[in-house]
Specification:
By secondary structure, this protein is of the alpha+beta class. The chain has one domain (4-114): HesB-like domain (Hypothetical Protein Aq_1857, Chain: A). It has helices spanning 4-8, 15-27, 77-80; strands spanning 11-13, 32-40, 44-52, 61-64, 69-72, 83-90, 93-99, 105-106, 112-114. The strands form two sheets. It has a six-stranded mixed β-sheet with strand order 4-5-2-3-9-8. It has a three-stranded mixed β-sheet with strand order 1-6-7. The longest helix is centred in the first third of the chain and has 13 residues, at 15-27. It is globular and about 35 Å long.
């Protein structure tokens, strides 16, 4: 597991995103949430989330949250370096928003991106 300071240079999490993810972890009595990137979607890649009841700490980079951790899949690191993860609520609903400088394109809903 990388140190917190080393990893936070690669990914930033806003307070709203921390609160949202921490609430999910707490409500499901989990340890962490994993973020990975998979091929697919209308723009080429999609962000995928999974709630984790246990964590193999050596397998993931982990960012501490208020309650639990955000674990980053090793294969996702290349795609999300310097990304800010935010949470927004507006008239169209609530959602996680990725401000990903590596993305060269993004679908309209923000669920998939290209590099």
């Amino acid at each position: 597991m990388r140190s917190v300071n080393e990893y936070q240079r690669a990914v930033s999490i806003t307070e709203k995103a921390d609160d949202h993810l921490s609430n999910i972890i707490e409500s499901r009595d989990a340890k962490a949430i994993m973020l990975s990137v998979k091929g697919g979607g209308c723009a080429g890649f999609t962000y995928e989330w999974d709630v984790m009841d246990s964590v193999e700490w050596d397998a993931y980079d982990a960012i501490p949250l208020t309650n639990g951790y955000l674990c980053i899949s090793p294969s996702a690191t290349l795609f999300i370096t310097n990304t800010t993860i935010d949470y927004t609520e507006d008239i169209s609903g609530s959602r996680i928003v990725f401000k990903n400088p590596n993305a060269t394109s993004q679908c309209g809903c923000g669920e998939s991106f290209g590099v």
